[in-house]
Each structure stands twice: as structure tokens, then as C-alpha cells.
């Protein structure tokens, strides 16, 4: 049965009651949550025992048997950069991982709304979001060498020294990231906190499986300009005229 646009919008509002009648997208005011979450706490998660147990087709209905998720936005926030990835790389599957329940709900609803609005072109079928703790369960989702790109954009700086162990970049986790990254894969990091930037660079340069891209290489990457304000956090830094600290590393 073919429905007109007004009927589609009405159906969307029934499915997504927090959706704006003007934009057709969910409204963040219904999904507000604390800016940060304790990654060490015992949150309640459903997670696969192994990568082969993941039902990717439930997240990407149009994926082919040959396709795999290749891009991972870790701590994707409200999904701004994830949406940009979907637009830049329509043939690639990108996943956002977010630990905060209301924020991940927002991204799921945002993607559902975008798919509905772009149903005629099958747009945004290549992005999805799951609620999970990447610091604990990343190898449960991805096979060895599966990922081509990983993004850590404006992660929680955990300023207190006692909480530095909670930072998402540390020596133990870098080995896990190297496991799921293919040879030559890239890790993109961006923060507005200089101390955290120095921490990230120091730990990644000490790890034997990464090398930092030089400035020319980083600037040639078409993704680099999008890192500054595609995400909601990045856009806020731009509005506040804050600093950006970028570092991109290659998996050896």
C-alpha cells in the first residue's frame, strides 16, 4: 500500500512520540542524560559471546552477505558524526557505540527517522547504533582485523588522576583496538582538552602497533575536516571558540 507524506509523518509520530512535527527527527530534550558515565560500573548490557553471534542484519536490513561493519564511532554521543559517515561513505557500514542509555536511544530513533524520511532512496541504511561498553565488550562484536577505521571524538577526559584509568585510551585497550583493526587501519582522536591530547599521543606512540600520521597525511584525509564540528560536541567547541587537538594513528 502506498501512503502519502502526511500519513508517513503521522505513522512516524506514533512510533516515535518525541519526534518533531517540523523536522521529522527526534528532539534531544526528551533524551537528556548526564554528560559522562562511569565505564567501570556494572551496567546492564546484553552482549554477544562472540562476533559470529551478532545479528548485524537486524541493524542493517539491506546489508549483503559480503558486507561487514568497517567503521566504528566509539562513544558516538548523539550521532552527528555517525550520520556524516553514512553520508560520506554510502557503501560502508558504520556502527556507533554509546554507553549512555538515553543517548543511544536518541541515536537509534534518529536513524529510524532518517530512514523513514529517505525511504525512497534507501538512505541511512548503512549506519546503526548499539548501546554497549566498548571498554569491555569490543572483541565480542568484531573479528580480528575487521575494522578499517575507529573514531574517538571528544572522549571523557576524566580529569582526576585517580580516574585516569577510566580513559578510553590506555595501553591495555590499545592492544584490543589493534586486534580488531586491520593492518593499515586508522584511529582518529579529537579532543578539546590539551592534557588528554598529550595523554593519547604519549600512550599511542609508546605502543608498538601504531604510528602517527604526519600533518600532511592527516590534512589529506577527507574525513579530517568533518572531525571538527560534525559531532554535537565538536560543534559546541566551535561555537565556544575552543581549541581542537587532532591526532590520527595508523595500525602497523
From TrEMBL:
Role description: Catalyzes the formation of N(7)-methylguanine at position 46 (m7G46) in tRNA.
Catalytic function, reaction form: guanosine(46) in tRNA + S-adenosyl-L-methionine = N(7)-methylguanosine(46) in tRNA + S-adenosyl-L-homocysteine
Subcellular localization: Nucleus
Active-site residues annotated for this sequence: 156
Protein family according to the UniProt entry: Belongs to the class I-like SAM-binding methyltransferase superfamily. TrmB family.
Pfam families, per database record: Methyltransf_4
Entry EC number(s): 2.1.1.33
Cellular component, GO, one term: tRNA (m7G46) methyltransferase complex
Pathway annotation: tRNA modification; N(7)-methylguanine-tRNA biosynthesis
Listed name of the protein: tRNA (guanine-N(7)-)-methyltransferase
Matching InterPro entries: SAM-dependent_MTases_sf, Trm8_euk, tRNA_(Gua-N-7)_MeTrfase_Trmb
Statement: the UniProt record of this protein carries the keyword Nucleotide-binding: no
Protein residues bound to S-adenosyl-L-methionine: 75, 98-99, 133-134, 153, 231-233
Molecular function terms, GO-annotated: tRNA (guanine(46)-N7)-methyltransferase activity; tRNA binding
Keywords: Methyltransferase, Nucleus, RNA-binding, S-adenosyl-L-methionine, Transferase, tRNA processing, tRNA-binding
Domain of life, per lineage: Eukaryota
